[in-house]
Amino acid sequence: MKSMTRIKQILIPAILFVVAGAAAASGFSILGRHMRPSRSASLGTIVEPDVLADEPIHPIPRTIELDSRKVVLGGRLFHDSRLSADSTVSCASCHNLHRYGADNVARSVGVGGAKGDANTPTVFNSGLNFRQFWDGRAETLEDQIDGPIRNPAEMGSDWPQILNKLRADPDYTAQFSAIYATGMDSRTIKDAIATFERSLITPDCRFDRYLRGDSHAITAAEKEGYRLFKQNGCSSCHQGVLAGGNMFEKFGVVADYFADRGRIVRADLGRFNITGQEDDRYTFKVPSLRNVARTAPYFHDGSAKTLKEAVSVMAKYQLGRQLSADELGLIVQFLETLTGEYSGGDR
Ligand code: HEC
Ligand code: HEC
Question: What is the Cα gyration radius of the chain?
């Protein structure tokens, strides 16, 4: 946080910046390098020409327009453990920006050493998800935040407690009043955090460069992996900008994953917990495959330790196929090309 003052000096005079890449918001020290003033008047995602537009996967936009003051404030809140009951856990404890927005353990540990009941998904590119959480129970990033704040196994807190602690910090109250007419309240805290999360995009991975027309950006083996990914039907669910994140699907379409795994718990029921509809039992948001090579272990239960294992489970339970070791290896090589740029510092 040493460099905060310097960054504030760079940022505060401008209302709108283009935030480019995860690095922009997370690694405060490199912020200046990745933020460029925008000439465009419109708000929201900038649509860029997409050379291979007929492909099922589309590139992540290189830039997203956001209010940079909110990004900085939200980044501070995201790393602030005062959001938890005993001031020991921050959002970043589980969504570590140096671990591609996740934490590489099957179950995260929250306040008082409590273990969560699902694997922690990444916050990188989460602003591009159609819903939030494995079961999609939150419509927006703003709505999502009440989840971890209240969850006794995560932050175990509530808004009155949080506001009490944060309002005692004059630096925060000044920052909030400079941005929001209503100053600091639960709505503006959520707005700032969600804006920060929207800045955590990882554009320009090798695969996106390929989609934009650079045919040398991926190797022949990786192209073959992508062909197998499409040919086997992975892209019927993992598609769009995130190679996922835009539909709900059952886990266990052609074979019963949960019967084979055993020990069914509430988190396994997926959307059934929200809708009560029998059809929604074991149904989840199809997760994004962006940066997937960096966010092991896999699945909502954190059961697959390697990407190879995850792909093999998918082939068996979603598609009824047994892929050869070669085919698995090639698909994994393709998935590795989805690792985007993150230059927020040491990892
Ligand atoms: C103790 C670990 C922990 C903490 C602390 C935590 N999260 Fe999470 N986060 C999780 C887990 C686990 C899930 C998935 C839960 C589910 O889907 O039921 C999740 C899901 C999410 C998602 C949805 C991503 C997606 O792809 O669906 C977002 C966004 C998110 N968290 C942001 C936050 C923010 C913001 C904070 C701080 C206010 C926070 N998290 C604090 C563990 C944590
Ligand atoms: C019918 C839709 C569907 C098909 C087809 C499908 N998937 Fe999935 N995929 C899902 C769903 C749903 C999940 C989340 C399962 C869970 O954890 O509950 C998932 C999870 C994953 C994960 C784990 C991601 C993470 O972050 O935990 C990987 C990797 C993956 N799929 C790759 C593939 C590959 C490769 C193929 C083709 C061999 C494939 N999928 C086919 C729906 C599908």
Answer: 20
